[in-house]
Amino acid sequence: MKLAELLECLDGARITGDSDVEIEELYYDSRQVGPGGLFFALRGVKSDGTLFIEAAVKGGAVAVVADRPCAVPGGATLVEVSDARRAMSLMAARFYGEPTASIPTVGITGTNGKTTTTYLIEAIMAKGGYPPAVLGTISYRFGETFIPAPNTTPESVDLQRTLRGLVDLGAHGVVMEVSSHSLEQRRADGCQFDVAVFSNLTRDHLDYHPSMEAYFESKLRLFTDLMAPTPRKPRRHAVVNVDDEYGKRIAKCAAATVISYAVEEDADITVDEVDFSVQGIRCKLDTPRGELSLTSELLGRFNLYNILSAVGTGIALGISDQAIQDGIKGHQKVPGRLERVDNDQGITVLVDYAHTGDALENVLTTLTELKTGRIITLFGCGGDRDKGKRPVMGEIAARYSDLAVVTSDNPRTEQPQAILQDIQAGIAPLSLKEYSAEEIANGFDEKGFVTIESRRDAIGVAMQAARPGDIVLLAGKGHEDYQILGTEKFHFDDREEAAEALKLRG
Q: Do 378 and 258 share a domain, yes or no?
């Protein structure tokens, strides 16, 4: 594609050099640039892309996009724009043929529930005749094609290239998680969404965002900047949880038609009847179309919200009630989201990705309502991440559990003991008994907690301490099959470790 054709999607670009050069591929990493490349010199957290322009040109770049004046050697063309990241997102979409322009595209944002909601919406769209590609925390996939997900929402060039490939494979829609990082960094600006979904907003990612308000503002972009009606997509919808205070704010300023949902508040979609059990959820909803009865194998109140958002999305896309009912009932298991580890010892072992205070409280509230025995919760907190949530998670785990097992998550470059001490600070005010690992291995009777740095050892001790009728929750890592110690990544899967510990338990 000619550079001039790519630039048609931008306003106000200043060009120095030949705009008629042929662009073979797009790059944002100078080490990967090949002949005929267009290089985006991005401002990074730790580096400045303009420092790598010379290397990019040597690698074959014939043009460079930057958001400030800079020298471009070798006769390459310079394109100056006001925002290089936004320009990259829009140009990538154009370069790869606007893969979301003519198919229903759904973006989901919020702190908790995004991944489960993608699975529900995927099932509804498939039943409705629009089998979608799905991009999220676990993988990017369509049909038998699975691509590992290094980021919830990939960099815009990678995102548009991946979308093009999945659509070419036959995807008739797109469902994607849209992270706050990606919205802040304009990665999704080239996507043409039909529906934007808001789940909730609780404390998370404050190692990246300077405040909760900044975190919210990044999420808000999806509903304002990216959802204004266009000639190609004049009927856009925002599906918003108005039980959440941030959701109420989004509903008031969204650029698209709002379909609100709630369990407590008045909304377009509300719950008329609901029954929670260990088998799942049965409910009757009041919707703009009338009453809708649903059954799901998902557990708990927080998953009821995920169901409501998926129903709202189905309605926004014009999918029939029958397809919505069939999709909710028949959706596939979500890896690492209250995923069971099968055993014949009468212990309910669940692996869940809950890694924020709110998510952990949601899961534990659900398990408290369903339990017949005791609750043992094993969890940790990631290193080099928001330290403020550590005592919060410690307090929540200890309050709801009969035994809280404090252990490592991904300590990264922090000292594991320092992380554990931060967590313990939230447990201390509860004045609970502190057990040793040796004591716990022989069982426990009094409510308390134990701290075991090694996650493998901690899982083993938790399994030894459990007895028939107990629920053991392994929280924080969910679908992840690795642990990061220092700067190295090692294979580690809570599901595998739990299965092995159950075998040793005998």
A: no
> pLDDT band at residue 506, thresholds of 50, 70 and 90?
low
Domain boundary among 264, 299, 330: 330
CB-based contact 24:61 (threshold 8 Å): no
User: Distance of alpha carbon 398 from its chain centroid, rounded?
Assistant: 26
Q: Is the pLDDT score of 149 beyond 90?
A: no
- β-sheet bridge partners, residue 296: 281
- Span 188-233, pLDDT tens digits: 999 999 999 999 988 554 455 458 888 888 899 999 999 999 999 9
Mean pLDDT value of segment 27-44: 95
What's the CATH number where 272 sits?
3.40.1190.10
Asked whether residue 239 is domain-assigned, the answer is yes
Please tell me whether residues 161 and 270 are part of one structural domain: yes
Tokens 């300023």 — which residue?
A: 253
pTM of the model: 0.83
d(CA 200, CA 16): 45
* Tens of pLDDT, residues 362-402: 899 999 988 989 999 999 999 999 899 999 999 999 999 99
Cβ atoms 188, 222 nearer than 8 A: yes
Specify the 3-state DSSP secondary structure of 30: helix
Output the six-digit token pair for 110.
């919020």
Helix (H, G, I), strand (E, B) or coil at 428: helix
Sheet arrangement for strand 132-135 = 145-148, 139-142, 132-135, 173-177, 105-109, 195-198, 237-241, 257-261
Place of tokens 């739990």: 498
Structural domain containing residue 412: 339-505
Cα dihedral 495, 463, 300, 239, rounded to 10, equals: -30
Same-domain check for residues 321 and 344: no
